[in-house]
Design a protein that fits this description.
It is a single chain. The chain is mostly helical. The chain has 9 helices and no strands. The protein has 2 domains: 97 residues, no CATH class; 162 residues, no CATH class. The protein is 68% helix and 0% strand. The longest helix is centred in the middle third of the chain and has 26 residues. It is globular, with a radius of gyration of 20 Å. The N and C termini lie far apart (42 Å).
Amino acid sequence: MVSALSFLALLLGALVGSFLNVVILRLPDENGSIVLPPSHCPHCQTPLHWYENIPVFSFLFLAGRCRSCRVSISWQYPLVESAMALLSLGLYHRFGLSLAFGIYFLFVAALLVVIFIDLRHQLIPDVISLPGIVIGFAVSFINPFVSWQDAGLGLLIGGGLLYSIALGYYLFTKRVGMGGGDIKLLAMIGAFLGWQSLPFVVFSSSLLGSIVGIGAMFKQKKGGKTMIPYGPFLSVSALIYLFFRERILVLVLLWLRGG
């Protein structure tokens, strides 16, 4: 029974991941629709048959190329589908078939969309973060993982913390170092995970961003003007906290107590 439910969680994640690819591709287009037209090749516009829409397997079956025009299919498609499938499986093993599973399934799907859109366009759509803030706080009244008080403080502190950092950076350097999308994303993360998540998410994302940023500085050769999206680091850090919250909090307490 457990194996069957694990498979269903994996399958659900893969199917939703297929839809997330559509969202990632079309949402940044102001004139685009995530509903119409139906799935098609972005290069030759040929509509896809049902067997070309099977998550992961269609990519492998077609050898990574469009059946009609033979143009290479982006690796983003199987990557997003596989990632959402594994995240869904992880959520099932963490929360079981529970209300928390549904709440955080929606949360990780939103983070996955943010990661790929921000990587490609350096943009975090308000249509994800702003409703996410409201939904995260609203479900806190029925969320066994986070209380409404922790969620409320999380969204207020999360948004205010990054806004303060962004303002301080601008006043000191006269350059915009962090966009409003990052601020709203952290507020959403705080609403879903509570204020307790924020120290780890901010520290971890800053560390990851610094490591990647140093590599980007050498590659782009722009020095301090090198620009990298921050949303993916916030999102990855939030995912780490979601799955390893108890261990992270224990380590933090041990550190505060001097080991």
